[in-house]
Amino acid sequence: MPDGTLPAERTLAPMSAQAHVTDARDYVALLKPRVMALVVYTGLCGLLLAPGGLHPVLAATAVLCIALGAGAAGAINMWYDRDIDAGMRRTRGRPIPAGRMAPGEALSFGVGLAVGSVLLMHLAVGWPAAAMLALSIGFYVFIYTIWLKRRTPQNIVIGGAAGAFPPVIGWVAVTGQLAIEPLILFAIIFLWTPAHFWALALNCAQDYARVGVPMLPVVSGERETRRQIVVYAAATMAASLVPLLVGMSGLLYGIAAALLGAMLVWKAWRVLQARDPAAPGRMFGYSILYLFALFGAFVADAAASVL
Amino acid sequence: MDPEEQRERSRRIRRRNLAVLGVLVALVALFYFITIARMSGGGV
């Protein structure tokens, strides 16, 4: 999932190269813990929504693997993007551009974690979930980070699929196979990502332009980006109502999805109006709350239907 | 390397070693519990 985190601007006393030893906290920063929280949450929701049961230890291991896989993808992303990270205010405090970690160290950490998380997933719940996890890591690293990010303003649209995998992985961990329900969850996050990330990108457009990353605000301008945010917010709301229409969720979820979606579109509309300079920031913050609340409503509705 | 750098370096190495130890212990425990869970038929 493309992240909107603000890494801690932690500075250490300068040390000679000979004396340098990377701090354990920098390894944690490499995993993009804030992004990981959303990934873990949606993965857990996919796991809880799936029919059937899984031993709690295996379920917890599956969630751990999803978290580690996301962290691994984040670490490899930070290794590959170290040049552009150094040129952006939002990312220059990250361990590699800040000089607190050698690039090769980050790469080996990321690759090791990626392989370890996939193997552990295979050991705990089987190869279908492990394959999905490998696919999501590969998609984020090769499709988004290496191929799309520096080439097209559609980078977030297509690359956003990487962040939509966790509920599918959670579902497959329980059932061992794909179904329409996890694909609907995938679609919701897929459509949510552009509106979420472009709200952040509006405030970082100059940084992206300076480092040559063709984010939508850089290529098509602010006005078009604001318009696209409304389009994707509306599409997200529409997709969020599909579970109600196909009988995947009940009225409780439907009411929550309608209210949360209406607020998302309203926040996006405020961004389009461009009267309030804080509107993109508010849209970005609300979009995170939206996804948490929407997936919470999914689980609450499923739990209510069982009771 | 001055004494202050040496102290900082030792502190980081110690913290990193403890983190690695924690991860290894957690992995051992995790593999044990996964094995128990799989043997009890809790898998897919």
Report on the architecture of this protein.
The complex is a heterodimer of chains A (307) and B (44). Chain A is mainly alpha-helical. Chain A has 14 helices and no strands. Chain B is mostly helical and 44 residues long. Chain B is 84% helix and 0% strand. The mean pLDDT of chain B is 86. At the A-B interface, helix 3, helix 5 and helix 8 of A face helix 1 of B.
Number of strands of chain B: 0
> What distance lies between the first and last C-alpha atoms of chain A, to the nearest angstrom?
34 Å
Query: Which value, in Å, is the CA radius of gyration of chain A?
Result: 19 Å
Order of helices and strands of chain A: HHHHHHHHHHHHHH
Rounded mean pLDDT of chain A is 90
Strand and helix order of chain B: H
Q: Which percent range describes the beta-strand content of chain A? A: under 5%
Give me the oligomer status: heterodimer
Shape of chain B: rod-shaped
General shape of chain A: flat
Helix-residue proportion of chain A:
over 70%
Task: Kindly name the structural category of chain A.
Answer: mainly alpha
| Major pleated sheet of chain A | none
Write the layout of secondary structure elements.
The complex is a heterodimer of chains A (307) and B (44).
Chain A (H helix, E strand, L loop, with lengths): L23 H7 L2 H17 L6 H25 L1 H5 L16 H23 L1 H22 L6 H5 L1 H15 L4 H22 L3 H7 L4 H4 L1 H25 L5 H23 L5 H28 L1
Helix pairs in contact in A: 2-3, 2-8, 2-14, 3-5, 3-6, 3-8, 5-6, 6-8, 8-9, 9-12, 9-14, 12-13, 13-14
Chain B lengths: L2 H37 L5
